[in-house]
Amino acid sequence: MIAAIDPGSEKTGVALIDEKGSLICKAIIPTGELKQWLTSTYKKCAFSHIVMGNGTNHKHLQPVAEAWANRQAGGITFSLIDENYTTVEGRKLYFKYTPRRGWRRFVPLALQYPPEPVDDFVAWIIGLRYIKTQQHK
């Protein structure tokens, strides 16, 4: 399992995915609660790697995640991944998995912006990018 993180200043997208990229769970959490999310998620479903996007606020959250990983007995590894254009991809993924309701059904997707944050979908994309880099090694 892989824990993927889209680090933000106030909110952080998180996702837990398997080695094939299938989503196990995702959420948007307050940035200050990252350690708690890692701990509670690890207790429910142990993961072996943490991947974080290298964008907004990663310089603050990277040490938090690495320190947490180093304290675990299971040898959890950590890496950063390029997160360029992940927000755009996250919006597309949002509309793929979230059915449009009401007037949104009649407006072309190209003219719409998700009505809620997509940081959790972006975390999923960060995890998928990591998997893709591992397949090319």
Estimate what percentage of residues fall within beta strands: 15-25%
Number of helices: 4
Low-confidence stretches are: none
CATH homologous superfamily descriptor: YqgF/RNase H-like domain
How many domains, as an integer? 1
For the sheet with most strands, the description reads:
5 strands, mixed
Distance between the termini: 19 Å
CATH topology: Nucleotidyltransferase, domain 5
Structural class category: alpha/beta
Overall, the morphology is globular
Question: What is the total tally of β strands?
Answer: 5
What key phrases describe this protein's structure?
alpha/beta, 4 helices, 5-stranded mixed β-sheet, Nucleotidyltransferase, domain 5
Structural account:
The structure is a single chain. With 137 residues, the protein is α/β, with parallel strands linked by helices. It has helices at residues 34-44, 58-71, 86-97, 119-135; strands spanning 2-6, 11-17, 23-30, 49-53, 77-81. 39% of the residues lie in helices and 22% in strands. Strands 3-2-1-4-5 form a five-stranded mixed beta sheet, sandwiched between helices. Strand 4 (49-53), helix 2 and strand 5 (77-81) form a beta-alpha-beta unit.
Summarize the structure.
The chain has helices at residues 34-44, 58-71, 86-97, 119-135; strands at residues 2-6, 11-17, 23-30, 49-53, 77-81. By secondary structure, it is of the alpha/beta class.
